Amino acid sequence: MTKDRIQHYITLTRSPIILSPILGAFYNELPCSPKNILLSYLVLPLVLYPSSQEFLSKARKTSNLRTFCQKKDCIIGLHQRINEFKTVTNRIMNDMLGKQFLKLYDDLSIKYDQKDLMPSKLKSEIKSAQNLASKIFKSQDIPNIYRQLGIVRL
After folding, report:
1. Average pLDDT, the chain
2. C-beta separation of 74 from 132 below 8 A
3. Confidence of residue 139 (pLDDT cuts 50, 70, 90)
């Protein structure tokens, strides 16, 4: 009985409908670059983890990927979290592409294709996703991001 309750709670809190504004906010702030679709697998594990969310929500103009990686609490267990959120991320991306909130180009780049962000109650998570795109990932190439975070493969 307890296992069912936990499973239902996980299903509700990791719903693509609830979490899709986070990815929308991320891609709204991220400059369009080739293969930026690969960054979608990093968004939820970094934004929903408490210690990295705290860092991202308070990120300044001087914050970058190197300063983020110096906080070991933010990246410990990242590979496991990526694997946990991979299915949810795929569902969110499929849903947002189907609803035409995101536009996928031939070079595997993604662009948020709406004027306004989707409404959501996840204000701190959305702020963290925006800071992740605009301050932490803004001038980095994708292989370098994965290398600095210690991710070898998806």
Report:
1. 87
2. no
3. confident
CB-count exposure of residue 30 (10 Å: 0-12, 13-18, 19+): buried
Residue 28: closest CA among 129, 141, 140, 104: 129
| Greater model confidence, 114 or 65 | 65
Question: What pTM does this model have?
Answer: 0.88
Residue 113 · residue 38 · CB < 8 Å: no
Most confident of the ranges 66-75, 85-94, 111-120: 85-94
Contact 36/110 with Cβ under 8 angstroms?
yes
At residue 154, the pLDDT reads 65
Structure tokens at 127: 């702020």
Region for 151 from its dihedrals, namely left if φ exceeds 0, alpha if ψ lies in -120 to 50, beta otherwise: beta
**Are the C-beta atoms of residues 4 and 77 closer than 8 Å to each other?**
no
* Distance (Å, whole) CA 141 – CA 49: 23
Helices (H), ranges, the chain: 2-13, 16-29, 40-47, 50-57, 65-70, 72-75, 78-98, 123-131, 142-149
